[in-house]
Amino acid sequence: MPLLSDEIRQEVSKILANLPRSVRLVMFTQEVECAYCAETRQLVEEIAELSDRITAEIYDFQADRAKAEELGIDKIPAIAVIGAQDYGVRFYGIPAGYEFTSFLHAIQSVAVGKPDLSDATLHALAEVRQPVHIQVFVTPTCPYCPQAVMLAHQMAIASPLIRADMIEATEFPHLAFKYQVMGVPRTVINETVHIEGAAPESIVVAKLREALGG
Amino acid sequence: MLDFQLALSQPEAHPSEGVYDLIVLGGGPAGLTAAIYAGRARIQTLVILGPLPGGQPANTEEVENFPGFPEGIGGADLARRFLAQAERFGARLIPASVTGVDLSIRPFIIRTDGATYRAHTLVIAMGAVPRRLGVPGEDRFFGRGVSTCATCDGFFYRDKRVVVVGGGDSAIIEGLYLTRFAREVIVVHRRDQLRATRIYQERAFANPRMRFLWDSVVEEILGEQTVTGVRVRHLKTGETSIIEADGVFVYIGMEPQTQLFVGQLELDEHGYIITDRRQRTSVPGVFAAGDIQDPFYRQLVVAASTGAIAAMEVEKYLELYPQSPQGSDRW
Asked: Do B113 and A118 touch (CB under 8 A)?
């Protein structure tokens, strides 16, 4: 049984037509598949079928530990969306529901390889000198969440020091608990700074500066 | 069961260079209906979706009053269909929010964080946002125990106790949705009866997990690290009491999203854009549709109908004032 209906497949094919560069969807699962691991793997494979510029690579989180470490993958299901280079764009948990839009947007964005951000934001991100880890907690039923995820991923594309994760909170309840997630989207920057809700670029940039102690 | 929501178009090779015939601001029922009509009229249309692609149906669990769906339809599903239908007829959908507009020059200028767009006509359909309570504790706990989106955050209140503030359709529909997660949902309402549609009232009163606190207003949201409750005041007796709760969902109405248009369009005293029966605003070529110009009904089907009117008026307007291919103005 395919996950994507014919109607959605058609829409996706249209959206992913003419990708300027190839995209690798590097997915981690394991032999005894976790909750949504099987579905996430299937989703990645179904998307790869819809464009000859997209390839799916499936790894085992246990057996391919070195690969996971190389890409900084520390939980599953995980997808690294990689373009001409690895920009640090990650999805933890299945990008279903409203996050499907974020997922396709990430594919488009790494294929283009040029962030869609304001000049002010790009200038600010060019100043970043230390590693930044942005984690955006979401639920698949949150229509406001893709905005926060897409922005974080754009920032990862803009700066080699920034990596950005979507984390599907219902699949990682221990992380939701650890980061006190009671509402989504909730963005955590470098473990220290939090943003509630889908904030505009300028606010996220200010919070990022705060996290870097500037 | 998994569903997959799509609110996106293929990226443009050279974004934001040309002049669109029409830019629709807002991707809810009004804006997307305008885009469907405009696309079918072969009007070159860009839709800047805003923070909630699909509009308010996207954060509604179930829609039961939209004609054609006798069993009801999931709000997310309906939102997805609106988006797909607009896309099918050629509108470009982009996941961005409008940060600035200039209606004083032609073509009109629309800014998002990443780009500037120009258009000969506009349909403003940015809707309304949930009104806040404006009480102590609300800002501090917003997104951390205070929410206006049950579909987003319901999951975090499994087996917990939540307060829903309000007595209209949204409060009751979302309160009923929250009973799937929470062990108890306490509705705090300022009047002694609900304003919600009767059919929702019947369901709410029949639900063993719902409780009602009449004639009461929330005066403060309490807690140190997390929300622990609310302080409510009874409007008739003046007595205050504390209700223990882990979360507060606020559904006390909506406010139009018109800050960007102050000084550029005529607004009424509550901030709604003033339109005539043809959805025209005070600036020729600028039309408005949906909740941003509707202080009275705020219904999905009404929003969609004003979107259709706006697009038909855009078509007439473009015929009356055709643009040169270069997009230079002739005003």
From this structure: yes
Pair A153, A183 in one domain: yes
**Angle, vertex CA A121, rays to CA A117 and CA A126, nearest 5:** 110
- Best of A12, A37, A50, A98 to disrupt the B interface by mutation (most B CBs within 10 Å)? A98
Band (pLDDT 50/70/90 cuts) for residue B330 is very low
Q: Is residue A1 part of a domain?
A: no
Q: For chain B, what percent of residues have pLDDT higher than 70?
A: 95
Reported as a single tens digit per residue, the pLDDT across A47-65 is 999 999 999 999 999 999 9
Number of domains in chain A: 2
Phi, psi values for residue A104, rounded to 5°: -65, -35
Q: Which amino acid is at B286?
A: V
What pLDDT is stored for residue B1 in this prediction? 65
B159 catalytic residue (yes or no): no
To which H or E segment does residue B211 belong?
strand B210-213
Report residue A199's pLDDT band, with 50, 70 and 90 as the boundaries: very high
Using alpha carbons, select from A63, A105, A52, A97 the residue that is nearest to residue A81. Answer: A105
Confidence of residue B117 (pLDDT cuts 50, 70, 90): very high
Best of B59, B116, B152, B161 to mutate (most A CBs within 10 Å, chain A): B152
Q: Which is more confidently placed, B130 or B331?
A: B130
Residue A63 placed within a domain = yes
ipTM: 0.91
- Final residue belonging to a domain, choices A81, A112, A143: A112
Domain boundaries for CATH 3.50.50.60 within chain B: 19-129+254-320, 132-250
Helices (H), chain A: 6-15, 37-48, 65-70, 99-112, 119-126, 145-158, 173-178, 201-211
How many inter-chain contacts (A to B, CB under 8 Å) are there? 133
Range of the domain at A36: 6-112
In a domain, A124, yes or no: yes
pLDDT of residue B325: 46
CATH of domain B19-129+254-320: 3.50.50.60
Pick from A61-65, B11-15, B198-202, B270-274: least confident? B11-15
CATH code of the domain made up of B132-250: 3.50.50.60
How deeply is A142 buried, as exposed, middle or buried, from its count of CB atoms within 10 A (0-12, 13-18, 19+)? buried
